[in-house]
């Protein structure tokens, strides 16, 4: 069954992540914990389906304040598919050099922040723009993506670098560069992409490590609670507290 083939492929990637990327995730988590502990941010950014791990981590039940999602609508909302904000426009925009520079102008950054970027191939210009601008502003840059598989692929950026070459810490998602993983008879293209599962696996392995580091340091985490589980006592109060802390940090207080 192709369903089991996809499941096997996904499990193998998760196992490879565990076997090869724990040290790099620990390094990334240390940088992120330092940013959050001093009241600053881990900014998160990606394009296309690489925005899904950003949307997954906060606001999210079991996530916590300290992660700031930067989601540029034309680079993620292409579910119209054709027409306004369709796939053609998205593919064009993620390759436009300079767009990421303009995106960065809309936010306040600090050298104590960490920039966490998601890019499967590592070659598109918007992500590289953001990485380079983050470095200019003194931030540490963490990149998650298919780093080993991307080696040798020509970057589209005039810097001559792919995003993995700019990063301070790289976590390889271990997904194949073509992403789709299951061969279908009578067809050229494969089906069953795996990069999203790889991204999400790496995200929660990393975020839980950040939480562990901060808890060991005695730092209070403002956790987004479950407000649907039976008997979730005082969950509204804890949610309000988390959102108040988020607002306080956004305001720069």
TrEMBL record:
Pfam families listed in its UniProt record: SIS_2
Keyword flag Isomerase: yes
Domain of life: Bacteria
InterPro entries with a match to the protein in the record: SIS_dom, SIS_dom_sf
PROSITE patterns hit by this protein: SIS (PS51464)
Keywords tagged on the record: Isomerase
Biological process, per Gene Ontology: carbohydrate derivative metabolic process
GO MF, one annotated term: carbohydrate derivative binding
Domain (SIS): residue spans on this chain: 32-216
Protein name per the record: Sugar isomerase domain-containing protein
Source organism per UniProt: Hanamia caeni
